[in-house]
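[stage:ingest] chain + small molecule (coenzyme A)
[stage:ingest] validated
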Amino acid sequence: MRILFLTHGFNSLTQRLFVELRRLGHEVSIEFDINDRVTEEAVELYRPDLVIAPFLKRAIPEVVWRGTRCWIVHPGPLGDRGPAALDWAIEDEAREWGVTVLQADAAMDAGDVWASVSFPMRNASKSSLYRREVTDAAVQAVTVALGRLQDPGFRPEPLAVNPDGSRGRWRPAFTAAQRRIDWQRDDTTSVLRRIRAADGSPGVRDEILGLPVRLYNAWPEWNLSGEPGTLIGTRDGAICRATVDGGVWITHLRALEGGRRDLKLPAVQVLGPQRLAGVPEIPLDPFTVVGTGDTWQEIRAWNEDGVGYLAFEFHNGAMSTDQCRRLQAAWERLRRTSARVLVLLGGGDFWSNGIHLHRIEAEENAAEASWDNIEAMNDLTRSIIETGDRLVVSALRGNAGAGGVFLALAADEMWCAPGVILNPHYKNMGNLYGSEYWTYLLPRRVGPKAAREIMGNRLPIGASQAREIALVDAVFGTDAADFAAQAACRAAGLAASGDLEARLQAKQSGRRRDEASRPLATYREEEMRRMRLNFFGFDPSYHVARYNFVHRVPHSRTPLHLALHRRIGAAAGTGTITRNQP
Ligand code: COA
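[stage:predict] done
[stage:export] tokens:
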């Protein structure tokens, strides 16, 4: 089928559906929801069999849904309606939630139902639920709905009609007052719920040490306590605020007044040293074992069954210069333990998304800050590549993008959970050339031709496709949790296997061969020569793209590499562009 995605952006859920539907053999083109006329034009150009709206903030124009079947992917169970579905699910402590595929009609989320899939709720932020459970359920629901479309006997189910004639259960957006935290009365669990229901957007409004802010990325603290509402500690850029029965770590804030009001940054950076004078830093060594959910630990390292693990839960997968340095220090220590197999676990939602664009944007000299950040990423990547006496595995429970993918490729093996999406390219960030030794790591895995295509196409790659093109070595598990359990078994198996020594020998001689043919340092030099032009040269594209990205500047058009229908239109008569060309 020819399917047009009408979407606010090419976000993680849209990327996953894009990958999965193409895998099922459908042709998928994308149009960003910019205004009604542009949407109508896209439908006229493409003449799709079906329009799917995976992530839409406005209604589909009537002329479109009357002329073409349109499906809305709603992140709520059967009958649920409204713009704050997941916020309500978290606030109401729902035990089960779901995703529903509805046919668009005149009333929002009230059309006939094509499919609905439910899932058990997890104690997590709205963004995390969206990226994992909602995305998995959306893929299932859309797949079921597509199957039903082929069944001439199937009739989509109308929503139940209420006594007043309305349909389903409409719930409005949250007000700021409904999200308010009362630090003198709310316990840790309620504060977490409030913050998580608003995370990543819009973020709970609050005031800390006299500064109006929004709060993001909260974790419980059960071992510290203090006067409710006071700050009782800082750690790795986060603050811990006391509640009536414990505390809450908040890693990021967005200041609502002052110079850089718009940026989401580490809480300590936003509050500044003057406000934080007297608040103690409470460090936690990455190797300290803490109970699950007891406190916040950004980098965690441990040994188990002969395997060394390194987990790094960096918010949004973004890795600043100091985070790269801390991670490298933990890596160097892990390398010195007895474990012969080392597993890089990344974070639960994201494995890594490369350099930290928000931190860079906040710096006075963004070009210098970009340079320092990429140097820190490169040092870390080199350290992994040069770990000759250990077998290194990157195990991806969550997505990875840009430099984050190449960092993962520095390992000897790369394993992925089945729903993982990889974006192994940099060009979308203002034609950034990229570093992290990608010119060495990517062609050595997939060959030079495929490497050029991957970098040039700028498209997301699903785990299965990544396996087929040898970008990753293994994809397994039913979901991310099952993947993690199986990855531990596989890693322990590798550590215990009789041929580990031979594999390590082969790895070392392979590296020596590569070094003799072209020294690793020269890849970095050449990449950094190109990056210097991106950061310090006359072409400002990278700085403009970064500004637009971190400030979430709305799209003014759909990029041609996504809008297949516009490429076909542009090439009409030239014969240069054909359907299905990626
Ligand atoms: N630096 C800082 N923040 C980043 C980031 C980065 N490298 N990558 C992602 N984020 C943040 C986004 O700003 C967003 O923040 P918000 O939710 O607080 O507004 C959040 O992570 C999620 O990003 P989003 O784009 O909504 O996620 P996605 O899953 O839909 O898309 C990517 C994932 C990787 C395709 C996309 O985030 C991306 O292109 N990131 C930039 C990668 C990059 O160019 N890195 C620099 C070169 S190494």
